[in-house]
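Hi R.,

Here's the chain you asked about this morning:
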Amino acid sequence: MGLQFFHNYLLWGSGLFLLPILIHLLRRRRIKIVRLPTYEFLLRTQRRIATRSQLKNWILLALRISAVLLVVFLAARPLLSGRGWAGGGSWSPHHLSVVIDNSASMAYRAGEGTRFDLAKRAARRLIENLSPRDRVMMLTTTGPRATRPGAAKPAGGLSKDAALARLSSVEQTDAAGDGVRALKMAMAGAEGQLDRRTIVVLSDMAKSDWEGLRIRGLRRVDSHTRVQFVRMAPEAGTSDILIQDVRLRPWPPRRDATFAVVFWVANRGLKDGKSISVSLFVGESRAGFSEMELKAGEEKEVSFRVLAPKEGSLKGRIVLSPDPLSATNSYYFSAEMGRRNRVLIIDGDPRRGLVDSESFYISNALRASPPGGDSPILVEVVAGYEMGRTEWSGYDLVVACNVGKWFGGAAESLRRYVEQGGGFLIAGGKLAGARMPGEGWLPAAFGQPRSVKPPQGAVVTTKGIAHPIFSLMGINPSRLFSMIRLRRVAPLSPAGGGQVLMALKDGTPVLVAGRAGAGKITVWGATCDRDWTDIPVRPVFVPFLRGIVNYLGARSEGAVAGIEAGEPIRVLSSAHRVGQSVQVKGPFGIEGTARLRGVSLSRPDFYDPGGSQGGRVEAKFTNTHRAGFYEILGPDEKEWVAANVPASEASLDALSEAELRERLPWLDLAVRAVGAEDSEPGSAIEGRLDLGIYLFLFMAAILVCEGALADRS
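And here is the predicted structure, written out as C-alpha cells:
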C-alpha cells in the first residue's frame, strides 16, 4: 500500500498553510494595559475565560491550516494504491485495459482448471468491480479477437456490460502469442483516455511469447498509466512432455505401401516420466502403440511402420498420455496420396531417330515403374514449335530441352506460370544458349558452350548435398556423378539468388536451382541426350531426374501439408479462377470462406483483382488458431491441411520480475502472481483508489466546524 499524487507538482502549493498564520499574526489587536483596583476581581474571572478562548483560537487556526492543505491535496489528486482496488469507486472515471494471454501455453493445467481459465476469472473480477462510468479495452495475445497488425489505434473503450460480454467470447487457442504487440496496442489505447488509466496483463509470461519485450518499439506512457503484469499460477510448474521433429519415410508415402513415422518425444519437466503411452492413428484407427519412460530433460526417438491408404488423403495423428499441457500431446500430419506429377517435355530439337532424341531419354526415365505397378509421373511431349498452343496450367512442371526459340509469347506466359507456383527445368544444348526464355527471373544464365578436356564427372557442392534433388541418392551423391563423363558444357552464371548444386572439378557450375515467385526452377548446363554427356545411359540418370521432378513438382507430390496454428492457409489456383470462393472447415466448428484473388509479386499486400499483373492467384484463410485438420474445398479439388501447436509454446520458462524491470525501467510497473487456489483472483491485483471524494467530505466537515467555532468567538 502506498500514496501517490496525480499532479505531483501542485504539492508545492502546500506552503500556503502559512497564510492563515500570517493573517492571524497581522490581525492581532494591540491592547494598552491600565491597572484599576476596582477591576481586580473581574480580571481574575477574565483569566479563566481567556484560557478557554486561546484554546479555541488555536483550534480555529489548525482547522484553517488543514483546510488550505486539503485544497492543495485535492488539486494534486491523491491516489492510494493497494491490492484488490483495480476497479473501486471514485469521482473520476477509470480506463482499464486488460490483456489476456490465450496462447497455447496458457492451456497448462493448474488446480481445477487451466491458467487461461484463471486469467478469465481474474479479468471478470476486475471488470465487475468497475463503476458504470468506467471504460474497458479487451485485448488478447492471439486469435481472432487480437487486434490486427498495422491498426493505428484500438477501438474506444467498452462499457462494463459490453466488456463482460466480450470477455465471455474470448477463447483458448493453440497458436503462439504475440504479447508485445498486444501491450503496444494497450499503450496506444490508453493515450488520451480518462484520467486514471491501468493496463493489466494476465499471462504465464512464458519467454516464447514475451522474449521480444524491449523498450525499443514500445510507446512511452505517461506517469498516470499503471502497468501490471500478473503471472497466472506460477506454483503449477513447467513440466511438459511433447512431440517434435516428425518425419515420414520415405517421402512422399506411396499409396497402399508401408512407410515409417519417425519422431522424438522429449521431457521438458524436472521430474521423471513413467509409463508414457504413445499412440499413432491413421484415419480413425490406431495403427501403433508403445510405452516408454523418460528421465527429466531426456529425449527419445520413436518410430512406427504403417500402411498408407490405397487412395485419397493420408491423415494421421500422434497422441501422448495426458500431462499438464495437453496442447503439446498431439501432433497432426496429412499428405495427398495417389496423385501423379504431370510433366510436359518441350523438345527443342526433335530428331527422326527416336533413340537420339532428348525427350526419349527423359520420358523413359520418368515413366519407369516397378513390375506390375504404375509410374508416379504422367509425361507428355511436344515439339518446340507447338509450345504457343500449350496451356501451362495443366502441368505441374515443364522440362525444356535445348529450346532455342520461344514462339508466340510462350516465354512470358511460362514466366507467369512459374511465378504462380509451377516448376521449370531448362537443359542446355547448342540451341539453348541462343535465346533464354526472358531475363531477370531465371536463377542462372547459359554461357558460351565449351569442351571439357579430358571428359570428367561432376561434384555435388557442400551446400547441395542436403538438397531435395539428391534425396534418392544416399548420403554421397557425388560418388554416382563422378562416374558420368561430361564432354561439353554451357557454363552457368548464377543470378537472382540461384544456388549452385553441382560443378566441375574446376568449380564451373553445371546445376543451379532457385525460385521465381511461388515456383521453383532448375538449370542444367549440359544436354539430356548423349551429345555432350553420357549421363542418359548411366544408372544415376533415373534417380537424378526423379529427384528433380519431386522437387519442382512438390505442390502435387509435396511435403507434409502442415502449418503452425495461427498461420494462414494459402490456396493457389490458376488465373481463370479469380473471384471464386474456397470453403474451409476446421476443428472446433471452425468454418469460413476465402476468395481467390490475384496477388502482385512485387507487392504481396497488393491484390490484383484481374490476376493480370504477373503475380499469383491465391486465397488466404486466417482463422486457423486451433490445432487439427482443415478441409479445403477449392474450385479445383479437395485437400487437407494439418495445423499443429508451435514448438515454441512448449518453452514454459517465464520472464522473472527482475528481467521485466530491466527491460521496462521507465514504466510504473507492478508484478504480481495469482495462485490456482485463490478464491478471489482479482484481489491479488493492485489498484489505485482516488481519495478525492473522501478528502472533499473531510474538508466540508472541517469548514462546518470552523464556522461553528468562529460564530462563538
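One quick note: Residues 241 and 267 are 5 Å apart (CA to CA).

Cheers,
M.
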